[in-house]
Amino acid sequence: MLKLVLIRHGESVWNKENRFTGWTDVGLTAGGVAEARQAGKALLENNFHFVVAYTSYLTRAIKTLWLILEEMDLLWIPVYKRWRLNEKHYGNLQGLNKKETAEKFGEEQVLIWRRSFDIPPPPLSGDDPRHPMHDPRYAGISPGLLPATESLKDTVERMLPLWKDEISEALKEHREVLVAAHGNSLRAVVQYLKQMSKEEILKFNIPTGIPYVFEFDDDMNLLRDYFVGDPETIKALQEKVANQGKK
Questions:
Q1: Predicted structure pTM score
Q2: Strand runs (DSSP E) across 107-244, as ranges?
Q3: I need a labelling partner for 188 at 20 to 30 A (CA). Which of 99, 155, 179, 212 fits?
Q4: H helices then E strands: how many in the chain?
């Protein structure tokens, strides 16, 4: 059996402040650190043992992965950082409070920007210092690939080559792979693996710091998927994510 474990980073500072984060690099809260450590303990208790892991270029995901691996005594394993695992780019919304934005533009418009499948938020201009082309961590990436904004559809299209060409191959080779990333980049993987419609994936929420396991047979046929933890707690956390853009 092959096991892929997806985990959304622990609570970040801007999660706590209910801000659009996207590609902005922010750290974890004390609660986010605790979530990551608890995730590591849960994976250890459930007998997971990874020999390779993936994460994004963003600190909140990288630190979450480090804390998980530290709890599992696996800090020595190879970790591959991939920009394609970055969060959906929220364009000019990045840094804005979601509740205040809903009060200004209306919940319906904010819901479209947050959860429309193919309508992106307003883009950053090329001379905006927040644009990733000005960030040295993306210096080796073709500027044409770097987004100024993204819809979920764009995020899916950005993410899938990494899944097909690299992560799925690592899973076949190593049998267990851990991926620490972000709500929307992980939803892109989930939509593909579960063959969800765009309507279904828009309603699907991934809480912070909860391991999400996919089990496959040796031919990469999906057998089952499940969160590791108490079902009622996880349901409440998913509802909390869904309500972030409301007044």
A1: 0.92
A2: 176-181, 212-216, 222-227
A3: 99
A4: 10, 6
